[in-house]
Amino acid sequence: MPELPEVETTRRSLEPGLLGRTIVHVTVRDRRLRWPVPDDLERALTGAVVLGIRRRAKYLLIETDRGTVMVHLGMSGSLTLNPPLVPPAKHDHVEALLDTGWTLRLHDPRRFGSVHWITGDERSHALLRELAPEPLDPDFDGDYLHRITRGRSAAIKQILMNGHLVTGVGNIYASEALHAAAIHPGTPGRRLSLRRCETLANAVKQTLARAIEAGGSSLRDYVNGTGTPGYFQLQSAVYGRAGQPCLRCGGTIRLVRHGMRATYYCAACQH
Ligand SMILES: [Zn+2]
After folding, report:
1. What burial letters (b/e) apply to 195-204, b meaning 16+ CB within 10 Å?
2. pTM more than 0.85
3. Which of 28, 162, 193, 264 is the most exposed place for a label (fewest CB within 10 A)?
4. What's the CATH class of domain 4-124?
């Protein structure tokens, strides 16, 4: 599933090819995504000029002179720019042809992604208005983490992954950040001191920033439409490393499962 770093990498890869371009044709092959693709998308977007591409949480916001297209990649989606004459593939459900001859395509085999058309202030959109702070923004810091963990007995890993409290930190990045901060994932949130919250907030930022950087290295192929979409292998310290030695202390990485969710941690150095 694309997490925040993959979505940010997608945003960066698309920006140079989209900025200032005019959309000359829109094709919707299948409207049945997680929410139906709006009926008027083709009409609304044809002739629109792209003014910018931004990200909020895991939503991509393609801003035009007529309104904003909001795209979510769901479980398996990718958004790529394809050179002229490259035919659409199976599961390329929505595409926009640009005046450069390149085509922006949403590919989504499982169709959990979505495309929305927003006119007016996007911040009041139902899917955006209740989103928690972005972990890479300055207002996400130790003070914020400390404030939201007071009175919460839920495990800190669950709190990090709670989209009402922190935006866009999925299982992999929560596990990695907790290891980097030497905090046991099961620690009740309310037990964390301000200092440990500061360490953790920094670890979350660094983990995400590193992943975005790692995504950048595969960007070239990606932009040229020849590579796999922006899901990249994180050089993980704990995630997927059950039974292997901890990179910090040499202890053994453990795996516990809560329902469908796997948590990896080092019992020796995460307290
Ligand atoms: Zn360790």
Report:
1. ebbbbbbebb
2. no
3. 193
4. alpha beta
